[in-house]
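> example.struct
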């Protein structure tokens, strides 16, 4: 009996002095399980937010590109003529921090804008498109500055203003200014901003 008491006192003394007790296997597994559950919740949320950020970046960049295009329009005596010829137009020199590609070039990301002057003879309609990588959505803006003889995006020929458009889940090769303006898209349009499109 005294042997048992001696061992118990020694063990108690060791615990009071801060012995080298470690975590048990069960405790470690519980911690790993909790971390796994937290990651299972956090990762999908993070990916969803990243995809939404790509859409927002494309929309914001299109608004910025439209501002630069309006500057071009003003400098060219109220005309978008030749804006899509990035070799000869000065749209690249209007510093908006974006890259522009011609009407046959595809937008490969939110910072690469494909542009097209739909009716080059009169220079009154401009299409800008940007592709959001995460959601594979092609966002576009059509700026119509005068009454047209042909309808733009199913609007009446008397329509003038800005159209905001979206084509959901498309390849970047489809997100091209000339295709987008030529009614190749299957998405929605709105005259009151991107928030009304989806």
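> example.seq
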């Amino acid at each position: 009996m005294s042997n048992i008491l001696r061992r118990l006192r020694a063990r108690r003394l060791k615990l009071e002095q801060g012995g080298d007790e470690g975590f048990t296997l069960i405790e470690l597994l519980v911690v790993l399980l909790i971390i796994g559950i937290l990651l299972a919740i956090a990762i999908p949320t993070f990916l969803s937010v990243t995809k939404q950020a790509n859409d927002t970046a494309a929309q914001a960049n299109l608004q910025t590109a439209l501002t630069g295009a309006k500057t071009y329009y003003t400098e060219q005596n109220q005309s978008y003529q030749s804006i899509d010829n990035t070799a000869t137009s000065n749209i690249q020199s209007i510093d908006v921090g974006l890259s522009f590609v011609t009407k046959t070039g595809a937008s490969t990301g939110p910072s690469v804008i494909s542009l097209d002057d739909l009716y080059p003879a009169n220079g009154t309609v401009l299409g800008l498109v940007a592709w959001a990588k995460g959601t594979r959505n092609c966002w576009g803006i059509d700026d119509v500055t005068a009454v047209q003889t042909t309808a733009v995006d199913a609007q009446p020929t008397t329509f003038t203003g800005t159209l905001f458009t979206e084509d959901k889940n498309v390849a970047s090769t489809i997100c091209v200014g000339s295709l987008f303006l030529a009614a190749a898209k299957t998405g929605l349009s709105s005259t009151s901003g991107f928030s009304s499109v989806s």
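> remarks
The helical segments are 2-16, 25-75, 177-181.
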